[in-house]
Design a protein that fits this description.
Helix content is 56%, strand content 12%. With 224 residues, the chain is α/β, with parallel strands linked by helices. It has 2 domains: 3-128, 3-Layer(aba) Sandwich (Rossmann fold); 141-219, 3-Layer(aba) Sandwich (Rossmann fold), CATH 3.40.50.2300. The radius of gyration is 18 Å and the shape is globular.
């Protein structure tokens, strides 16, 4: 079954480029193009698997519209982040992936396929620098507590999620089954009190949890 894709874009040149790229993929079907104002109605009518949203049709400032669309389908947002915090906010309201406008065509297609398969790709390496440029925050009591509540294996899974790994990639990396990975991801989301992998990663970076995981791992290693 082909991946049904709807594109929200106001710029004709970008729309033509995306059409040319997506039409070359044998497993992708472009449902059509829409603008920011018409997006919700188009999603309701066409029921795409994934929607690619290109700023400025909708951008980081359009939180209400993005959250509405994210409740209807899987959203990949292509936008220039003025700050890392804005990328984190987009992930927290349900956007599945945030890509920089200069991301490669290969990155976009890989993210699209991964998101469609159900595994949230937060950002590929080139675009993930946005999150990695977040100020290094101290390990707060709350983040240290969250890190301590994660088992060593759950901490490994959290780090791999932060790298944008799919369930299959996590399973291969840790030499475990897909069912085991799904169980670990479920436990991580529950312990962090979030509903999606993207939200987990966003909170982990923003709260200092990633640093806390690193320190907890070092402490456990010293104990061993």
């Amino acid at each position: 079954m082909k991946i049904r894709v709807l594109v929200c874009c106001d710029e004709s040149i970008m729309s033509a480029a995306l059409r040319a790229l997506l039409d070359q993929q044998p497993d992708i079907e472009v449902m059509g193009f829409t603008t920011g104002r018409e997006s919700a109605a188009a999603v309701a009518e066409l029921a795409p698997h994934v929607m690619i949203v290109v700023a400025p049709a909708l951008g980081f400032e359009d939180k209400g519209e993005l959250a509405e669309l994210a409740a209807l389908t899987k959203i990949i947002l292509i936008a220039k982040a003025e700050s890392a915090h804005r990328s984190v906010e987009a992930l927290c309201i349900g956007v599945r992936a945030v890509l920089a406008p200069d991301s490669s065509a290969d990155d976009l297609i890989h993210v699209l396929r991964t998101v469609s398969a159900g595994a949230t790709m937060v950002m590929p390496a080139a675009a993930r620098r946005t999150l990695e440029r977040l100020p290094q925050q101290g390990v707060s009591r709350s983040s240290a507590r969250m890190a301590a509540e994660l088992t060593p294996r759950e901490s490994e899974v959290m780090l791999l999620l932060a790298q944008g790994k799919s369930n299959a990639e996590v399973a291969e990396k840790l030499s475990v089954s897909m069912a085991t990975v799904r169980s670990h991801v479920h436990h991580v989301l529950r312990k962090l009190g979030v509903g999606t992998r993207a939200q987990a990663v966003a909170i982990a970076y923003e709260s200092g949890l990633m640093a806390a995981i690193g320190r907890t791992a070092e402490f456990r290693g010293q104990e061993g």
